[in-house]
Amino acid sequence: MEDITAIAKKNLEDRIARISSKAIARATAKYIAARTAKHQARKRGGEGAEILTDFLTNVYSLATEQSDKRSWQTLPATIHLARVSLSPGEWEARIAYYSDQGRLIEERPVPSLNVEKGKQHFLIDHILQ
What we know:
The longest helix is centred in the first third of the chain and has 42 residues, at about 5-45. The strands form two sheets. A two-stranded antiparallel ribbon has the order 1-2. Strands 3-4 form a two-stranded antiparallel sheet. It has helices at about 5-45, 45-65, and strands at about 1-5, 80, 90-100, 105-115. The radius of gyration is 29 Å and the shape is rod-shaped. The chain is built from two helices and four strands. The protein has two domains: about 1-65; about 80-115, no CATH class. The protein is an alpha+beta fold.
């Protein structure tokens, strides 16, 4: 149905410039704030205050910078869809999964389907590979 991996890559490509710009702006703001704080500390408290301020601003900068931990790894790489038209009635069915090479991976029965005229029915199933 859709190549989820391709969608995720395209989404990242579309957003990468904005993500990079925000990271650069954040780092620049922290650098300017740290320099200003060090300068003020030296002016008011001398070299010791400047060293302490430098240390504290570095710790703050490291502590507040976090990586993006969101992930597409929980999504499947692909989604396949089959559409079957059935006449009204009771149906017994099986679902078979095949590899790209045509080898049967798994086959299993589906609970009986009662198809009613004019109604849509959806069967959702998945396999972990």
